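Checklist before submission:
- one chain only
- standard amino acids only
- sequence pasted in full

Submission:
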Amino acid sequence: MITFSVKSDLEATISQWARVAGDQMPYATAVALTRTAKLAKEEIERQLPSLIDNPTAYTMRGFRLYPATKRKLLAEVDFRVAMGRGTHGRDYLSPLVYGGERKLKSFERSLQRTGLLPAGSAAVPGSGAKLDAYGNMSRGQIVQILSYFKAFGQQGYRANINDKRKASMAKGNKRTGTRGISYFVGRPNGGRHPNGIWQKSDFGAAGSAIKPIIIFVTKPSYRKTLDVPGIAQRVIKDRFADELRRSVAESKRTAIPKVQMTLI
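Returned file contents:
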């Protein structure tokens, strides 16, 4: 995504130090490239809070630095690749960099596979959603909804709630004071309420009430707001020469002297 290499306009700066550094030049160049790329990554992360409302720690770790080596004089800053079932950084950060629609989150894809989320739509928290410290729906509530509508795939089929369990949830428990709840999809109140997933709470003789947990909206489209190429160019212009000067000095100071061997 961002590439820092000697194939760019850095060649002129590097050639100025080649005679001074000698055979330490590849190592010194790799260090300078990596440090410059790290500075660019830090500047990207510094800008994220102004572009994303209350970003999570996971979002702040959405970019990764790939350091240069003396055999591969190339340092890169790219989207972080998620491990396991996590979300790739590209999925939710690329709209800031390139513009366009954001990709569906994993739970949205599950709702779409089940036929609940209409094509071209996204899911946003309703007023009845339980939110975490970052304003996102709580993982527990998402799991409960996916389980209720049997939206887990083959690997998660055991997490899906069966009809007997749904009936028990709707009934509630008078002994513990737990009110009955159920979920449904649609536009209640004669279509005057927005389309989405609603929770119905049963209060017994006092009646019942509904509240929106998830609202279906048109999938949002974003314009480019994170100027990654511009950040890279500014950091290279402002810092690479100083980083190379520093790395050359360090490499000369810490270099192991060569020992000349004489055959007897």
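Reviewer check: The longest strand covers residues 208-218.
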